[in-house]
Amino acid sequence: MVWHFWVPYLTCIILILIVQEGHSKQRCLDEEPPLYSKEDNIHVVVGASLKKILAEPAMGKLVQFLNSYCGNCRRFAHTFRKMAVDLQKWNRVLRIYAVDCARLENVKLCRDFRITLTPTIRYYPSKFQRIRHGIGTDIETTIPSEIADQLIESLSENDYSESKGVKPIFDPIEPGNKLNDIYEQFDNKVTYILLVHPVDMGIETILNMLPYPDVGVRIIKDAEMFAQFGLKPCKQMVALLNRSGKAQLIKPAGKSSSAYVESVAGLLHQNGHTSMPTLPPAEPEYILSEGYDAFIVDYVLNSTKVLFQADLEQAIYQFLHVEIPKTAFISGFKFKALRHIIRLFRRFNVLNRDGRRMLNSLVNHLFEVTEITGEEFRDVVDDLQTRLDPIFAEQQYVGCLGSTPHTRRFSCSLWTLFHYFTVLAAQMKVYPPSSVTIGLYGLAKFFYDCKDGSMYFVKLAKRMNIAKVRTHDEEILWLWEAHNEVNEKLAGDASGDPRFPKVQFPERKHCPDCYTHSGEFDRDEVLKYLKRVYNLSYLSGDAEPHSRRSNECKSKKKYLQK
Ligand SMILES: Cc1cc2nc3c(=O)[nH]c(=O)nc-3n(C[C@H](O)[C@H](O)[C@H](O)COP(=O)(O)OP(=O)(O)OC[C@H]3O[C@@H](n4cnc5c(N)ncnc54)[C@H](O)[C@@H]3O)c2cc1C
């Protein structure tokens, strides 16, 4: 008995100690490790430096613009990583970059480059200037072999005139060219010339032979021209010539550039030549959060709560400071959707008193204009915030924190915010039914940059007759059903959080009454449950004025002790 009496107190003391200990280890959102790294042959770019990078001469650049909170971008990460490691062989002419448009520092960059859906993959040639050349060339595929094909074409047309090392030469050999002329076009380090025919095979071989800087590769357009080098004309051929013109014929295992290169590499190896070192193959990343984050995740997983103040604030913060400001221009239906969403934010305010003031002024501003640029919107928000007391308290998620970097977070907080709004709408009855779901529809259609999520939800909303919601209770259930359909689609998906598997909500263990004897959902009980868990009184956290200081996270202690 005595032991039982002490258990809750001991648990509480341990919880407080861990939280206090964790306070010193907590990370801010901005310190999230990026999705890619140099070890993957991918350079992560932050802020304005991209424009300078793109202006570099003698180099093609492949840039992936992504949103780390999007499932499709995370799903694609392993493929892109693997491709980047494989393309390390082209490093002398190609650099690969990643820009995370979910980051505050990249808002302007993603707006300037007109990123509306992610992942967006673009190619940039040497000396690219945003003002003169536009936004780059879209690569409309995420299949590595197709990306590589487009790169081959673009890299073969690139300007290497200011190259510091040996320049690749993609123009075919001219009739009458002698071996000495060809050697002279390269620098002294070149000890072999590799002749390749036909042209397409030659272009790819030039790129694949870049790790061998002592081999100059030239294309033979017309097979007859092999005779210029004392060789027998042949439909498909590759020949290695040393400076004295002695040819070593190569017999590739297949009719592909990789087979050519493999055979040449074998021969060079025999002759004592080695290639530049390459990166080890990319492994799938699967890092579980540690320390303070892991503690929060454990807490949330063992709690019955679904609603945390920090997540609601975070959804609004990200929307106002990142998602809208990174939009170039907002007019027409898109503008109406924005106005509607900000009105919902104001009506069902989750921020402190100054937050409400800011939203009031923002709504007023949006009724004074008929269109707005993302930059103007950002200026208005910034201006209002400087005139008010600090509004946003937390820089981290709580109920929506992922157990691995990047999972859950913003997408989770959006769902949570809008479920909460549906329940508030039913209590307050100030807006017609379906106002909240229409708001989420507008957000998904115009301001949610994850390609598949946005398109899927728009289709789903039409299929589920979003406009036919007649009562507030129907609206709560509509969103619950729509969300469960997305959960079903994503169940077992590789982009998901390993500790938060996608299941039908609510789980039986949290709401046994929500299930009938036959295992179906009891909609009346589900409605009661949703009203209970997405309720203000169930909201963990307080609404005291807080400060959001850059590079400084506040403790989430108060959110957990309630
Ligand atoms: C409108 C929209 C459409 C999306 N479409 C896609 C898509 O097509 N592809 C894709 O990869 N990702 C999509 N996402 C993201 C995806 O749904 C998840 O948000 C993301 O994977 C994070 O998942 P999570 O584990 O945090 O839980 P989430 O699904 O984000 O749920 C957040 C919280 O809501 C509660 N919850 C879960 N289900 C319900 C429910 N039915 N009713 C009420 N509460 C519930 C739980 O407490 C859960 O922790 C979409 C997001 C949004 C906002």
From TrEMBL:
Basic and acidic residues: compositionally biased ranges: 543-554
Cofactor(s) essential for the protein: FAD
Residues annotated as domain Thioredoxin: 26-157
InterPro entries, per database record: ERV/ALR_sulphydryl_oxid_sf, ERV/ALR_sulphydryl_oxidase, QSOX_FAD-bd_dom, QSOX_FAD-bd_sf, Sulfhydryl_oxidase, Thioredoxin-like_sf, Thioredoxin_domain
Catalytic reaction equation(s): 2 R'C(R)SH + O2 = R'C(R)S-S(R)CR' + H2O2
Residue ranges occupied by any ERV/ALR sulfhydryl oxidase domain in the UniProt entry: 403-504
GO CC term (a single one): extracellular space
Signal peptide coordinates: 1-24
Name of the protein in question: Sulfhydryl oxidase
Organism of this sequence: Drosophila melanogaster
